[in-house]
Specification:
- This protein is of the alpha/beta class.
- It is built from nine helices and eight strands.
- It has helices spanning 22-32, 47-63, 74-79, 94-101, 115-124, 147-156, 169-175, 186-189, 194-204, and strands at 8-12, 37-40, 67-71, 84-87, 106-110, 128-131, 161-164, 181-184.
- Helix 1 runs parallel beside helix 2 (47-63) and helix 7 packs across helix 9.
- It starts with 7 loop residues before the first strand and ends with a helix.
- Residues 9-172 form the Thiamine phosphate synthase/TenI domain.
Length: 206
């Protein structure tokens, strides 16, 4: 049985992957560890590629009884039997997504390092808010979502929070008491054995 006080796992797919390889890799990870949700986060704007990936990942996710959300593509949620959408523009699209998908769908919002955006997203009906990156990254502005943000959020706000972006074992250990989920992506997919890499992150939660 999982530790109820331990953050849950939220897997983020690579920005691109081989459909002949990744579904089996994902299935192996889901078979080894309990995961709450998967985010299909593709960089491509090729509609056919996104739809084929959505179908392939949905089959694996639902076989393991794991929810699957897709990044930004609201129109594909119902069409491909997905569980919801993850929005990357803070609170701006939350109300529209909720209206389009209904109350049963998952609507999440990435709010960078902004407490204000996170609060607005929660008030607009987001099921969860994610902040990041929590670790050092050469991408974006270089600003990080620090421990204080998660500590304040977990104490003051009921909406579940996800910590993601450039996670390390040390950061996972420090943030585990103040986050509901860890969003894990390249931290494991870049490793030779993603399931083992995820196991190491889980162990770091304590």
């Amino acid at each position: 049985m999982p530790d109820q006080d331990r953050p849950q796992l939220y897997l983020v797919t690579p920005p691109s992957f081989d459909l002949d390889v990744f579904p089996n890799l994902l299935s192996g990870v889901l078979g080894a560890h309990e995961v709450a949700c998967i985010r299909l986060a593709l960089a491509t704007r090729d509609e056919d590629a996104v739809m084929r990936a959505a179908d392939a990942v949905r089959l694996v996710a639902h076989e393991h009884d794991v929810a699957l959300v897709i990044e930004n593509h609201i129109q594909l949620v119902e069409r491909h039997g997905l569980d919801g959408v993850h929005l990357t523009d803070g609170a701006r699209s939350v109300r529209a997504a909720r209206k389009a998908l209904g109350q049963d769908a998952i609507v999440g919002a990435f709010c960078g390092t902004s407490r204000h955006d996170g609060m607005n997203a929660g008030e607009a009906g987001a099921d969860y808010v994610s902040f990041g990156p929590v670790g050092e990254s050469g991408l974006g502005s270089g600003e990080r979502a620090g421990h204080d943000l998660f500590a304040w959020w977990s104490e003051m706000i009921e909406v579940p929070v996800v910590a993601e972006g450039a996670l390390t074992l040390d950061l996972v250990c420090k943030l585990a008491p103040v986050t509901d989920f860890f969003g894990v992506g390249e931290e494991i997919w870049s490793q030779d054995d993603p399931a083992a890499a995820l196991g190491s992150l889980i162990a770091a939660m304590g």
